[in-house]
């Protein structure tokens, strides 16, 4: 397996988009931990779940496998790694910008356990106002909460600092 | 061991049987809690609450899958997470009775979630430094999630307890109903002592004072009393369960038993 193909496989895997938040890639979300390609084209991909029960993980596993195969992998092994636990601090700068552009308020710095009850101001991704209100700690996916902007009156999703 | 000193060389280790049994306790608490919480999908008082309880159920299910998958590997008898979840009888489950109780009222569901999450959160926090790195990894993940569960249950307990006369009455009834079942969470036995001595597990009794402080504080703020009761039902850790578990398992397992290995 030449180096060009190995690079192509790694790039293809990194470009896989999250099945539930389709504006960001698994790499930008920080759930792609490692891609190794051996001389025979056998590819090992290491991913980590956002939340333990995230139902998107099975789809990500399938999408990653398909992408690696299309780029020339002869066999693909997808491993799940829990340590260290994923944090929203792992979301890249470009990932945060894409989330905001898609109307999803990106997370602030991850909270430590003792700060759980602390409320952090979240800016409306549409009008930029900090006059927002949490409607529900639990949103359309495990990693999101549901908010409303009291300035422009639009509801929006927010990736919970985690 | 001759001296009263523990170090890396002299710390006792546990066998695969003990580790398997301990993982079943962790996994079954989460699995049965997940199944009960899932019953609220489309039945909660408001849509946001449907989503919240379903999300919490999903977190519990995620932790259960990780613990039971590991349990199956440790056992080495070829059982995977599905075999352990769908092919065991009620007397083979090792969850505490608290999580299997029927949610007769929304208040009951919230009281159970408060008691469970106030137990799981410090438990996972302690397990995150387990000498078993696999358990430590699962717990480090779950502890972040259980913080939300505790927060959510706390918010509802305050809202209902310190709400209308009707919501106060029902929340008080719910706390009274589930309270006797909370003592089982903190029972120690030979197994818990062995896994704790090996640095793998946590002595449940060590979490009791902190739990009572945390839950007692929430109840007081919610204008609710900490119930006084001498009745302490027990048996879940040895496979003796309430009638409620049988019905729960019948629903959870029926498809898998009718169509073994079914996937979709």
Give an overview in words.
The complex is a heterodimer of chains A (162) and B (264). In chain A, strand 2, helix 3 (56-70) and strand 3 form a beta-alpha-beta unit. Chain A has helices spanning 3-14, 26-29, 56-70, 93-101, and strands spanning 32-37, 42-47, 75-80, 104-105, 132-136, 144-149, 155-159. In chain A, helix 1 (3-14) runs antiparallel to helix 3 (56-70). The model of chain A has no long low-confidence stretch (mean pLDDT 91). Chain A is of the alpha/beta class. In chain A, the strands form 2 sheets. In chain A, strands 4-7-6-5 form a 4-stranded mixed β-sheet. A 3-stranded mixed β-sheet of chain A has the order 1-2-3. By secondary structure, chain B is mostly helical. Chain B has 10 helices and no strands. In chain B, helix 5 crosses helix 7 and helix 6 (133-161) runs antiparallel to helix 7 (165-178). Chain B starts with 15 loop residues before the first helix and ends in a 6-residue tail after the last helix. Chain A binds chain B through residues 49, 51-55, 82-86, 113, 116-117, 135-140, 142, 146, 160, 162, and chain B through 48-49, 51-52, 54-56, 58-63, 65-66, 125, 133, 136-138, 140-145, 147-148, 150-152.
């Amino acid at each position: 397996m030449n180096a060009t193909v190995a690079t192509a496989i790694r790039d293809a895997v990194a470009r896989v988009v999250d099945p539930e938040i389709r504006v960001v890639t698994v790499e930008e979300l920080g759930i792609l931990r490692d891609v190794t390609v051996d001389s025979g084209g056998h590819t090992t991909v290491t991913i980590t779940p956002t939340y333990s029960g995230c139902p998107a993980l099975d789809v990500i596993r399938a999408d990653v496998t398909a992408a690696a195969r299309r780029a020339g992998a002869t066999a693909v092994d997808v491993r799940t790694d829990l340590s260290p636990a994923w944090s929203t601090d792992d979301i890249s700068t470009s990932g945060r910008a894409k989330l905001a552009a898609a109307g999803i308020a990106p997370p602030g710095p991850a909270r430590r356990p003792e700060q759980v009850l602390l409320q952090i101001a979240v800016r409306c991704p549409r009008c930029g106002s900090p006059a927002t209100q949490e409607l529900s700690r639990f949103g359309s996916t495990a990693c999101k909460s549901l908010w409303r902007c009291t300035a422009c009156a639009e509801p929006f999703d927010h990736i919970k600092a985690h | 061991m001759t001296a009263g000193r523990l170090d890396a060389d002299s710390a006792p280790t546990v066998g695969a049987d003990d580790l398997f049994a301990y993982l079943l306790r962790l996994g079954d608490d989460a699995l049965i809690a997940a199944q009960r919480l899932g019953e609220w999908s489309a039945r909660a008082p408001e849509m946001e609450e449907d989503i919240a309880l379903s999300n919490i159920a999903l977190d519990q299910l995620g932790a259960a899958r990780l613990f039971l998958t590991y349990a199956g590997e440790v056992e080495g008898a070829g059982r995977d997470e599905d075999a352990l979840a769908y092919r065991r009888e009620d007397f083979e489950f090792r969850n505490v009775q608290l999580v299997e109780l029927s949610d007769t009222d929304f208040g009951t569901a919230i009281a159970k979630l408060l008691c469970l999450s106030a137990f799981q959160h410090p438990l996972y926090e302690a397990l995150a430094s387990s000498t078993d790195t696999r358990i430590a990894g699962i717990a480090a993940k779950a502890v972040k999630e259980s913080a939300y569960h505790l927060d959510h249950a706390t918010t509802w307990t305050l809202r209902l307890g310190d709400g209308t006369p009707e919501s106060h009455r029902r929340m008080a009834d719910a706390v009274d109903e589930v309270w006797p079942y909370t003592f089982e969470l903190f029972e120690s036995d030979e197994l818990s002592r062995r896994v704790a001595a090996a640095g793998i597990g946590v002595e449940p009794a060590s979490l009791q004072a902190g739990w009572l402080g945390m839950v007692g504080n929430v109840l007081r703020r919610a204008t609710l009393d900490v119930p006084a009761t001498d009745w302490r039902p027990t048996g879940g850790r040895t496979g003796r369960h309430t009638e409620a578990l049988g019905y729960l398992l019948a629903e959870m397992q029926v498809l898998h038993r009718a169509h073994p290995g079914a996937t979709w």
